[in-house]
Specification:
The structure holds two protein chains of two kinds. Chain A is mainly alpha-helical. Chain A has 13 helices and two strands; from the N terminus they run H-H-H-H-H-E-H-H-H-H-E-H-H-H-H. Chain A has one domain: ABC transporter involved in vitamin B12 uptake, BtuC, CATH 1.10.3470. Chain A is 72% helix and 1% strand. Chain A is globular, with a radius of gyration of 19 Å. Chain B has a two-stranded antiparallel ribbon. Chain B has one domain: ABC transporter involved in vitamin B12 uptake, BtuC (Orthogonal Bundle), CATH 1.10.3470. Chain B is 75% helix and 2% strand. The chains are: A mainly alpha, B mainly alpha. At the A-B interface, helix 5, helix 10 and helix 12 of A face helix 4, helix 9 and helix 11 of B.
């Protein structure tokens, strides 16, 4: 009950901040709110693998970046007036976000299926190292792909379009990102309470029991991993459009770490934990970053403190311990 | 492909491999004995390089710098173990990942605070600045041969330490059954600190050695850390022998791939395309090898419990 109230308050807080900032003329804060919404969406996606399925993936930057590159590549071809593929069939570029998202999410889903198929053969530390290594492979692929900017990445001069919206407007872009976040939260909530979600949670808690009840854990985990990667890819596409840039930095393993950090700051396995975590993360980045260039030092100390002494994160403090271990 | 080029690149690969071994040995020992995944191992590598560059710059002696770098990394490792890592042994891997990720942030910003934002440069010691003639006519830098020698020597020393000394016996016993050796009266906390500091010292030494080949800068440890993970996954986690085999394999495949793949593609593609495709594939090669090893032997080539 208390968690539902906190969830509701967190979901309401973000648009209130954005609206308030808009009314006060602080457009920069609206951009920050959009950033928080997008990072929260990435966290919600990762939380499906991490919190529900117990898969500690350090490779989700790969999916985040694939989504980002989908937006970047589309914008690049639209700007240059060239087709994405010229042969054997011509595929014209589009600047319509729904189509870009579909392409990015599908591409990330395929990548997640391939990476997951290999990594999920292992567990524990192996899984962490292998997801990290495969994400690094995708990173190097991005760095060496000269057609799409190589190390420099791709600038997005004009934000991609969404039917009926002016995405160049900060508030409208925030609304779009926030709607995606709500859709992501609703999706993960529905998945988590479905039969499939129960099986995924059981794969985390007691694999032998899941197998004994006639459900093979491997395909359940794989589907969970792929779904999680697809949600993160949508966040990546939005993030690229927010920043007007897609590049290898989106694929770097620091990004994987950051998404994981905001899930943990919020509280792992909690529906709105990533939302709380993302707001805290963006607030820390802005406030500390304004005071000192060394803000990551303080982020490190806060994170260390949370891990060592405040297990359960922000949601643990606000809404009490999670009911299910 | 000439013999000279082949030999030169093979040696480069072995040199990279032995550097990776110095990183991977510590990681795999720490995992084998304490069950801990340490993302901050690259930060200790960086610490070794920074201290070596600073001390070598101040004293004018590379060797004093090298010793100082390895000792500083070992000391930093011991401090971190006592202050933070010790609390993580009983935690799950997620907590270990996060806490050591936090340590990376702290070390990176700390290094910027202490040593400044600009990269440091470390000169190769004068005695090793020459070259050696290889069969086939190529000149190979002595310094890289020295790294190979030091790496092999340390691999031998580590083998001796683990298989022939009392400490090594305790380390092996710790891998097999932690509770039991604690019950037998071994001070397990001290042993853990020692193993962690040993791994940190090896990483620091590797960083200092490589620091003379590249620039010494913040973040230099992370690509090496990820390669060391690939090494451990290929070699078998917890196994020092596996770490050595995996490290040399990864070093040679990576180096050879970068040189010879673009050339191979050049046989049937336009030069520019061949370079682009070849180098893209080369940068992915070791990860593909890792996937292949996992598909055939999920526990790696030399599993520790075999």
């Amino acid at each position: 009950m208390r968690e539902a109230l906190v969830n509701f308050a967190l979901i309401a807080l973000l648009p209130l901040v954005a609206l308030g900032a808009q009314a006060a003329g602080e457009t920069y804060v609206v951009t920050l709110a959009a950033k928080a919404a997008i990072l929260a969406l990435a966290g919600v996606g990762l939380n499906l693998a991490l919190g529900v399925g117990g898969m500690v993936s350090l490779g989700h930057a790969a999916f985040f970046g694939i989504g980002g590159y989908a937006a970047g590549i589309a914008a690049h071809h639209v700007f240059a007036g060239t087709p994405v593929i010229g042969w054997p069939v011509t595929l014209e570029a589009t600047d319509q976000m729904p189509l870009i998202w579909l392409a990015g999410v599908l591409a990330a889903g395929l990548a997640a299926a391939a990476i997951g198929a290999v990594s999920l053969r292992t567990q524990g530390v192996h899984f962490i190292m292998i997801t990290l290594a495969f994400a690094q492979m995708v990173y190097y692929l991005g760095v060496s792909w000269k057609t799409y900017g190589g190390e420099d990445g791709l600038p997005i001069y004009l934000r991609n379009q969404f039917p009926g919206l002016d995405t160049g407007d900060g508030m409208q872009f925030f609304a779009l990102a926030y709607a995606c976040l709500l859709a992501g939260v609703a999706l993960v909530w529905q998945v988590a309470r479905s039969r499939f979600g129960q099986a995924l949670a059981m794969a985390r808690m007691n694999e032998a029991r899941l197998a004994a009840s006639g459900i093979s854990p491997y395909p359940v985990r794989l589907v969970g991993f792929v779904l999680s990667g697809m949600v993160v890819a949508l966040a990546g596409a939005l993030f690229a459009d927010l920043n007007g840039f897609a590049g290898p930095s989106m694929l770097s393993w620091h990004r994987s770490g950051e998404i994981m950090v905001l899930v943990i700051l919020g509280g792992v396995g909690r529906l709105c934990g990533p939302l709380a975590g993302a707001m805290l993360f963006v607030a820390l980045e802005t406030l500390l970053g304004g005071l000192t260039d060394r803000w990551q030092l303080f982020l490190g100390l806060v994170l260390l403190g949370v891990v060592l002494f405040a297990r359960g994160g922000l949601m643990g403090m606000l809404a009490g311990r999670a009911r299910h271990g | 492909m000439t013999l000279a080029l082949f030999l030169e690149q093979l040696l480069n690969g072995v040199q990279l491999g032995l550097t990776l071994f110095l990183m991977a040995a510590g990681l795999t020992l720490v995992f084998g004995v304490m069950g801990l995944i340490n993302l901050a191992h690259g930060a200790l590598y960086m610490t070794g390089a920074f201290v070596c560059a600073t001390v070598a710059g101040a004293t004018g002696s590379f060797w004093i710098g090298l010793g100082a770098g390895a000792l500083a990394a070992a000391a930093a490792g011991a401090v971190v173990e006592v202050a933070v890592i010790r609390r993580l042994y009983a935690r799950d891997h997620l907590d270990q990942v996060l806490a050591t990720f936090a340590l990376i942030l702290i070390f990176s910003e700390g290094a910027r605070l202490i040593f400044g934002d600009r990269p440091l440069w470390l000169d190769i010691p004068a005695a090793l600045s020459g070259t050696l003639a290889l069969p086939g006519g190529a000149q190979y830098p002595l310094y890289r041969l020295a790294i190979i020698g030091i790496g092999l020597g340390l691999a031998g020393g580590l083998w001796w330490l683990i298989n022939r000394t009392r400490i090594g016996m305790q380390i092996r016993a710790g891998e097999a059954d932690r509770e039991m050796i604690a019950a037998l009266g071994v001070d397990i906390r001290r042993l853990y600190t020692l193993v962690f500091a040993l791994g940190a010292g090896l990483a620091g030494l590797a960083g200092a050695l490589v620091g003379a080949l590249q620039s010494v800068q913040v973040g230099m440890g992370e690509p090496v850390l990820i390669l060391a993970f690939v090494v451990i996954v290929i070699g078998g986690i917890g196994s020092v022998k596996g770490a050595l085999a995996g490290a040399v394999l990864v070093g040679v495949i990576d180096t050879m791939g970068r040189v010879f793949l673009p050339a191979t593609f050049g046989l049937f593609m336009a030069p520019a395309e061949a370079t682009a495709t070849g180098s893209a594939l080369a940068s992915m090669l070791i990860y593909l090898v890792m996937a292949l090893v996992l598909a055939l032997k999920p526990k790696g080539l030399f599993p520790a419990d075999a």
